[in-house]
Amino acid sequence: MRDDNKNDERRTRRAEPEREAGADTNRGDRTKGSRREAAALSPADGMIEGRNAVIEALRAGTSIDKIYLAKGETDKTLGHIASAAREKGIVVVEADRRKLDFMSATHAHQGVIALAAVREYASVEDILAAAREKGEAPLLVVCDEISDPHNLGAIIRTAECAGAHGVIIPKRRSAGLTSIVGKTSAGAASWLPVARVANLPAALKELQKQGVWIYGTAADGDKPLYDADLKGPAAIVIGSEGDGMGRLVRESCDFLVSIPLKGRIQSLNASNAAAVLLYEAVRQRG
Predict the structure, then answer these.
(1) What is the mean pLDDT of residues 185-205?
(2) Is residue 47 within 8 Å of residue 113, measured between CB atoms?
């Protein structure tokens, strides 16, 4: 009996290190996953974390796309940051602390994370002025709530390659000129003016007053792409991946253009749709 007990103890001792090794492997996998997540949103990707760092960035006039603040915080310093940011026209978003923890690469965000912009935003008038200086009919792309930075970067890249004069995005519910957008655009974001507006339908109305025709993209559009006249002043509106154009934006369009689709899939990626319309404009303009 004693020998049997000794054998059982030896088997137990051999099994325990195996269980511990398995536990270490799982922890290693989780650590690698955390590192991958942090690498996707690291300081090198334009993140500024912590109260003093964000305050100094605001004082220095650093171009900031958006500031995330911990929801429900009553700290005076965070309130000061929010006020200073709004005075500069920077979008301030209240976020759950768990989201900030997930975003944070330093794990010391102190309730505030700022996303730096790769360049200053232009105004819509800047974009129209650039077209006038070149003696060309304005060609713009308007992005209605394109929240995926990779999509926005791809649209900016195509627009720059096609000779468009600028891109317009809304302040809220949209990706901004973050470093991810800059990278995805392959540097085009450094060359092509991007304007950010508080009210997209109002901006479209203003463009119409300036003589620009608004072409919205829609699967049920009543004007086939190849019947659309894109030779004159034109703004091409690209809706979000899931919902397309918002109702007010759609109602602001002069034309709703449909892209011919011959396959089983009845929709294109937003950046692909933008490319199709932009290069039809290039073809027409010669």
Answers:
(1) 95
(2) yes
Beta pairing partners, 234? 139, 213
Find out whether 217 and 259 touch, Cβ atoms under 8 Å.
yes
Alpha carbon 37 to chain centroid, angstroms: 17
Q: pLDDT tens for residues 212-263?
A: 999 999 989 999 999 999 999 999 999 988 789 999 999 999 999 999 999 9
Query: Residue 63 burial by CB count (10 A; 0-12/13-18/19+): exposed, middle or buried?
Result: middle
Q: Per DSSP, what are the bridge partners of residue 122?
A: 195
CA–chain centroid gap for 73, Å, is: 26
255 strand-pairing partners: 215
pTM: 0.76
CA distances from 43 to 33, 105, 109, 119, 176 (A): 18, 7, 12, 16, 17
